[in-house]
């Protein structure tokens, strides 16, 4: 299964619930298009819920980084929520754990944007 | 045909098209061979991911999706190890020229983490140039089940 993304609004924070695989090909391009669409529409506070993501490869990690820089360069912020152990391990191996702000509690994560 | 280094008859020796479908196929093939040899699910996932990254390198960076070029996948199972060889027909690359993805200035680069992940997820990773052109990578996962 490729990635399935759905967005919802919690106050002024846009939460993206991701499920499935973010891997080279359809998964990573779907993700990229969604982020671009949101930033084009002016969304600047983005919380990416990765709790249901079963697989991310290096291309998917690249898309996370690209999303982070896109949103940050536009004066916004992108944070991560509910990392699985696999994704957490990947962020540690790649040292990106030091780049992303990571949360385990959605309410606290939403509040952290204000 | 025996594996050229150790005289082992491979479980799989196949030629794959330079497509993203082949990346999925290779991962599934290796996982099928590796199942039931004492590798736990998490380690199996890591082996699969290392194969995926090596295949992406072969298809995308090596063969550049050229339909006239193939990727050879050889999987061998021995009592103490699982060996995966992936060979492309590309122009080759110099490992020492690759930027360090963990360097501060490279952390936000979009690409360049594949080999880092392969090294993290298998026990041994070797790269060699093959003639007339191409690169062969060897991934080895040692098995704890013993002989």
Count the helices of chain B. How many? 3
Low-confidence stretches of chain A: none
Shape of chain A: globular
Number of discrete helical segments of chain A: 4
Distance between the termini of chain B: 23 Å
Overall average residue pLDDT of chain A: 94
Average of the residue pLDDT scores of chain B: 92
Structural class designation of chain B = alpha+beta
The residue fraction in helices of chain B comes out at 25-40%
Give the N-terminus to C-terminus distance of chain A in angstroms: 35 Å
CATH architecture of chain B: 2-Layer Sandwich
Helix fraction of chain A, binned, reads: 40-55%
Characterize the main sheet of chain A: 5 strands, mixed
Largest interface: which pair?
A: A-B, 22 and 21 residues
In terms of DSSP E residues, the strand content of chain A is 25-35%
Strand arrangement, major sheet of chain A: 1-2-3-4-5
Strand content of chain B: 15-25%
Radius of gyration of chain B: 15 Å
Assigned CATH class of chain A: Alpha Beta
CATH architecture assignment name of chain A: 2-Layer Sandwich
Number of domains of chain A: 1
